[in-house]
Amino acid sequence: MIAPKLAVTVLRAPAEPARVVALMPGLGTAVSGTWDTTAEHLAADSHVIALDLPGHGRSPAWDAAGEAPSMEWLARATDATIEAELEEAGLNGLPLHFAGISLAGGLALQLALDHAGRFSSTAVICSAAAIGQPSAWTQRAEAVRSDGTASLAEGAASRWFAPRLPRR
């Protein structure tokens, strides 16, 4: 499978970093607006990068040439992207930490499983080892392709908020 290109945003680059923190937002979101404020509250000597999922934020859409994506596939792509970024910035050898929200939280689990030697820590935020059923994700993807993301807004709001809040 062809590894996707993941866009990397540098949120902080101190002159003398002590560690690297890699952050990834969840499905349907982007680095911008998700991690910007959080990065400001991390230790000042942290080199902070964030990666957008394929087809999100600044990352191009995934092109798998007919192959289905998997968490293993996304973990390999994420690890390779981070490795290339650290190599380019001359930061190999620093402790590396990863935090992911929702789908990227599940990715944090996969990274910890498959690439344990690379990461000093991983944080799983608002996530689980399994999120929904594959058929439900396929249906949602088809709905977005045919009707846009607005078609999912009501269902998402009912999952994320108390019943009266979306009406208000």
From TrEMBL:
GO terms for cellular component: membrane. Pfam families: Hydrolase_4. It comes from the Bacteria. InterPro entries: AB_hydrolase_fold, AB_hydrolase_sf, Hydrolase_4. GO terms for molecular function: monoacylglycerol lipase activity. Gene3D superfamilies: alpha/beta hydrolase. This is Serine aminopeptidase S33 domain-containing protein. Residues 16-137 form the Serine aminopeptidase S33 domain.
